[in-house]
Amino acid sequence: MFGHLLERVRALFLSVLLIASFALPAFAGPFEDAVAKFANDEFSDTGEAIEAVATSGNPLAFPIISALQEERLTADPESKKVFITQTDGKIIDAATGAAVDKLPDNAASVRLNNRLRRTVEAALGSLTLLSPDPAKRVAAAQSVFKSHDENALSVVEGALAKETDKAAKQAFTEARAAIILFKSDASDNDKLEAVSVIKSRGDQEALAVLTSAAADQPPLIAKAIASAVSSMQSNLAMWSAVQNAWYGLSLGSVLLLAAIGLAITFGVMGVINMAHGEMVMLGAYTTFVVQEVIRTSYPGLFDYSLLIAVPLAFLVAGGVGVLIERSIIRFLYGRPLETLLATWGLSLVLQQAVRTMFGPTNREVGNPSWMSGAFELGQITITYNRLWILCFTLAVFAILLAMLRYTALGLEMRAVTQNRRMAASMGIATSRVDALTFGLGSGIAGIAGVALSQIDNVSPNLGQSYIIDSFMVVVFGGVGNLWGTLVGAFTLGIANKFLEPVAGAVLGKIAILVLIILFIQKRPRGLFALKGRAVEA
Amino acid sequence: MLTQLTHDRATLSRRGWLAAAAGLVLGLASSPFSPAKAADDTIKVGVLHSLSGTMAISETTLKDTILFLIDEQNKKGGVLGKKLEAVVVDPASNWPLFAEKARELITKDKVAVVFGCWTSVSRKSVLPVFKELNNILFYPVQYEGEESERNVFYTGAAPNQQAIPAVDYLMKDEKVKRWVLAGTDYVYPRTTNKILEAYLKSKGVKQEDIMINYTPFGHSDWQTIVADIKKFGSAGKKTAVVSTINGDANVPFYKELGNQGIKATDIPVVAFSVGEEELAGIDTKPLVGHLAAWNYFESIKTPANEKFIKDWQAYTKNPKRVTNDPMEAHYIGFNMWVKAVEKAKSTDPDKVIDALPGIEAPNLTGGVSKMLPNHHITKPVFIGEIKGNGQFDVVWKTPGLVAGDAWSKELEGSKDLIGDWVGKKCGNWNTKTNKCGGQGS
User: Fold this and answer.
1) pTM score
2) How many CB atoms are located within 10 Å of the residue A51 CB?
3) Residue with the larger pLDDT of the pair A158 and A467
4) What value of ipTM does the predicted structure carry?
């Protein structure tokens, strides 16, 4: 997309060069002077340079300003020469377009601050309004909509007249409406029409444009704006309930993911495993190691790093789980307090071990491109990482359920947990099943770590923040029941997210804990209590 | 196999057991690093920073910094002809243990000075020990102010050396009219936000243009709050977020900002607790342009800073190791202490406490910081914007050095108070009544 554009710019530029070589001196002084200002390392000069370059009409204007935005524009403070490092790594002189072999040693990136970044965005917006790529035109129109720069009006109207793409046409209409609304000499009728165009857009940005335009307007327009704003607000309020529900689902999926492994080790096996959080942490660190290896050796595979990390995290955390079960926990079956102490101590040992190996600070786990960003659904924003985590959680849950139900190992696990002695009499190697069950729970915690590394810190403390929540979900949902864990996690997530806007994050959390305490008083075995002989076994 | 009933009981009584278990294990885990050998030819320096637990993420670096500074000083021949010897203890992010370890450092190891603490609650926990046993604490972290103690020297920023200049910058340069004050729910953000709220109102900002939001420690689900900020910012006035969000909660907060597409050009976030170390765990490309206010940035180009970074990376044998603001505070504080000891010709705490006010030591950003009578120091204030490589680019700085106020001028209860340990010998002198005592006495 971008390469295509660059190619066109380059073609354009070559043709200009061709003309220039016939009609010397075609490159006038002002453009070069403006470009040289980038080398002064003063924000005010850079601002002037952007304006001058953007309005120069010079074909180099777009490459210069887009390079500036992406920190690819460098300047040599001594010779006042400015260079563009193109996306393909080639370097050209920004003032003339001539190719340069390498950057001078003391060349430094041209610095920006937020004010200049806005200027750059606006300038790029008006420079790309006529881009051949419809997506680029939409983006440009959006930035004009935000900046509502009067100078862009004629270009926008020109573009609108010959626009064929539906989305771009809509974006141009909205951009034009925003400009007209802010134009002091536009007629009342035009402005009223502009208000209704912006109103029909209906999102937060439209609301922002309308409210900021409300000041110093004639009374008729001000009234129209006020009524548009109030109808948009009530519409947005309805959407915000939908949004809360989505946030609740997403929080619920994170809770479920963290708790699902514990639902096996604690819920099914009955081991109070305080080191559960550390299994999650091991999974997250496995992701980090996988990404490190990919970054240094196979950079092309980065987008697949999570897919590679999932089985590895399962093996690492599951392996550690089996080890813990064989070396510590099997001696402590039936002694809950000792198990609690031993696993708590173990969790501290694991934390400190990771701290010693990887250092106490956060480690960077990158988001693959398909996990970054967001899309709009109606008036709510759905971020990709949350969406994928929700899907992933449900998949893990389904696979686990199927495994317990349809495989031989699952059957043995259920048999051993329901009646150990009977299972042993039937020839099941109960201690092997114990080790495998604990390993399975730990491995799933490791998988959770892969997903959580995408939204949380990867630090030695990662597990601690999830252990309380995980126990809460398992106990609330009903110990020993996977479906209870599922319902419990989503109930808590949604309740939390509907309380949070009302009570605030701190009080919301307290309220949830109080509700759970009351609930447990009433139903000590959670939402879905196990019935029958298994309970007493 | 357990019965299900025991499971439930055990889970319900888990908290009590947790506390007992935590106390036991932490107590065992945290024995002092170096054995305390009494030797007359060394001066002992206590290092009281958490090396395990939640705060290890920030404090471990400060322990290394003091060891590094002691190493450098010993290469120059030590102090008063004696070598310095570090005594490192691990208070394990456990506030009562801070007081215990401080007592151990002073009475058992007989240290001449202690460098330590990060959170305000840990400082408050060790205060009585330092008063009772009369020793010196150098505290290197930006904090909420409202305190001036004889035994404590505050080398981090007071609110007027960080929060207020940052808000001024946003008001003047970014023309911000609407403010979100977001913080973690504990004393530093609450006091800082109280000061900021009073300050903003004194500048004519209306109540409806200020949104205050607190979150629990380690908050990781920021979806609702980020959406609220987005909504608050769409009222047609330029909006900014002033963040006193602490520690681990920052990474998910910034990730959510990036994912929901809030760019610095729309709603800038200025943070007081996010430095180079915190950014080391995030991909900063979506965060370019968000701001931080500090008294030091690694990217500041001065010969002193370049030498410090080079020596630090050589000492830690890690060419990627970053430096940050509290490290610089320790650098200044350590050098001030060395100069004061040399001036007093003694390591006796009383003499050093009297010698410290007025002592000047160069900071790493090209200026000379001075210890004030209220035991705070003068520092420059910088506003930096996050860059794509995890460093900060300084976009604004105060024209000169700013003197730290122990007592905020913005708050009703404290605006008449000053700390003066030279003339008045009092940490909370009331300039209206001309008496020692007042709030905080």
Assistant:
1) 0.81
2) 14
3) A467
4) 0.79
